[in-house]
Amino acid sequence: MKKRLFVLLFSILIVLSACSSAPKSGTPIKDFNYTDQDGKPFGLEDLKGKVWVADFVFTRCTSVCPPMTDNMSQLQQKVKDAGLKDVHFVSFSIDPEIDTPEALKEYGEAFGADFSTWHFLTGYTQAEIEDYGPKNFKTIIKKPKNDDQVIHGVRFYVLNKNGEIISDYPGDKDVPFKQILNDIKAANKQ
After folding, report:
1. Whole-prediction pTM value?
2. CA–CA distance, 190 with 185 (Å, rounded to integer)
3. Distance between CA atoms of 28 and 41, rounded to whole angstroms?
């Protein structure tokens, strides 16, 4: 009982500290080259000159990932409906040992993902994503031992054509779709 309470309190502290250190506008992210849902290499170079939205999810998530992925699917549709071109979506798996390309493809299909502009990424170690997410997106990613759930942030990050974070918003509930679309439109004009 004490161990569970400690893990819960530790998790809350981590999440609270992650919330207070949002990325600054114009923050460039470091290069990456991973594997997409089709088993093909995909990286920052593929997004050069494109506006994109990123998040962190995993397929066995029992809480926030399904609503986040549903919201990302809605956002993808709203971008299409607005006639915005060359806008991409990137979902980084935070459970890469379980989330194979095949598992990610099945997961994306369940939410109606259009894979022509939505890329579900894996192909790195747990340690690598637990390092990459916090350093580049100022988000928490931690897979506790003996647990199949991963602690993580629930933000959507809008990145400009230079691979710089320009804004971030809640991705699990009360998603400000209109604001995100305005950010995407503004970044697309630059």
Report:
1. 0.86
2. 9
3. 21
Radius of gyration of the chain from its Cα atoms, rounded to whole angstroms: 16
CA distances from 81 to 61, 74, 85, 108 (A): 29, 10, 10, 20
Pair of tokens at residue 108 = 């994306």
Residue for token pair 């549903």? 70
Q: Domain extents for the chain?
A: 2-189
CATH no. of 2-189: 3.40.30.10
Kindly report, residue by residue over 76-115, the tens digit of the pLDDT. Answer: 999 999 999 899 999 999 999 999 999 999 999 999 999 9
Reported in sequence order, the residue ranges of the chain that DSSP labels E, i.e. its strands, are 27-28, 33-35, 41-43, 51-57, 87-93, 118-121, 141-142, 151-152, 155-159, 164-170
In angstroms, rounded to a whole number, what is the distance separating the alpha carbons of residues 190 and 113?
27
C-alpha distances in Å from residue 92, one per residue of 82, 96, 122, 124: 25, 9, 7, 10
